[in-house]
Amino acid sequence: MSKSLQAIRGMxxxxxxxxxxxxxxxxxxxxxLDNYGxxxxxxxxxxxxxxxxxxxxxxxDIVEKEMYTFEDRNGDSLTLRxxxxxxxxxxxxxxxxxxxxxxxxxxxxxxxxxxERPQKGRYRQFHQIGLEVFNLDGPDIDAELIVLTWRLWxxxxxxxxxxxxxxxxxTSESRGRYREALVEFLSGHxxxxxxxxQRRLKTNPLRVLDTKNAETQAVxxxxxxxADYLDEESRIHFEGLKARLDAAGIPYVINPKxxxxxxxxxxxxxEWVTDKLxxxxxxxxxxRYDGLVEQMGGxxxxxxxxxxxxxxxxxxxxxxxxxxxxxxxxxxxxxxAFGEAAELAALALSEKLRDQLPNxxxxxxxxxxxxxxxxxxxxxxxxxxxxxxxDDELAQQVVSFKPLRGQGEQQSIAFDALTAHLATCIxxx
Length: 429
Fold this sequence. Notes:
It contains 15 helices and 16 strands. It is of the alpha+beta class. Helix 1 runs antiparallel to helix 5 (139-156) and helix 5 (139-156) packs parallel to helix 9. It is elongated. The two termini are 52 Å apart.
């Protein structure tokens, strides 16, 4: 017997009962970003592999271990995008969107791919919403990114479950001086470092600060602090960011070990974390990458951005029971019709209702069926009300209107009064 077909491990179907919550979340974010003046950009999910090697860094875990890379028929090395910033920068450069120092405030949404060990909240195909801002170099835009996420958490009802962590990585020069000091210190405690940290010490030493190994963390207590190596420009920038967050009333903690896993970050880095999802605690993260555009072949251009993981935020909404009740209902009114003449009249009437009430979620019964079977489908649809049209109603030019969730008695409504009645009921319902 042939093996049954199924999804690839770590790449999940989003089923019809799940999509209303996804649409609610995505729609909430899109409206918020419209209000803040961000414009959407859409990039391919496949890019040349070299793009990610040059931007993310060849010795990062993503490039070394996690990318889905393959050769196409032309022999070109291609990669399913593991993150969105590099692809967005490539698109900005290719189309000259930042020419002449023009600021750009962009956002995107879509799937990313990393070959990681699948677990709750961490998948091989996962979805992100990302923001990228170019040619604005002050702490005010860094603050705006954080302020708008704080507003989003309030809109979603999850502010009490997330915490903002901040750090500054300084410029590449000051970070280089800190890296040398850190390597010198850790080299003197090599026997106390876990195997992964020993490897990172040679390739990407700042990532040692990210370790979860308890013995290595104990060593890091006495390690040099990045704040002591910050250049004056980065220090002033960071103080400006903190002052704006204080003015906006947004609480935060300074995490000197926060470095992020990508090589291109400089100055500001931040993460929104939660303790409600177990090990997968980061729900949104980003920072400044002022050297990335130039590194990828463009003119010196400042940049800052973040990405939020949709799966983790959906999981957080469900965990905290912050799923609005109305989004689980996809039908407001279910139209039952009995007999050929009633079905024709119901079709015409339902389209008239859709013209006059564009937001009405109206489902007309398909496949005929008895009174009992149609009512069973009406109830299963989750609709608040049922409309009933048979030969008797048709003769009187009325529709029977029946509440399905205990909101009153059945009554007859004239055809020409139905729109006004539904408008009132749906708003109240």
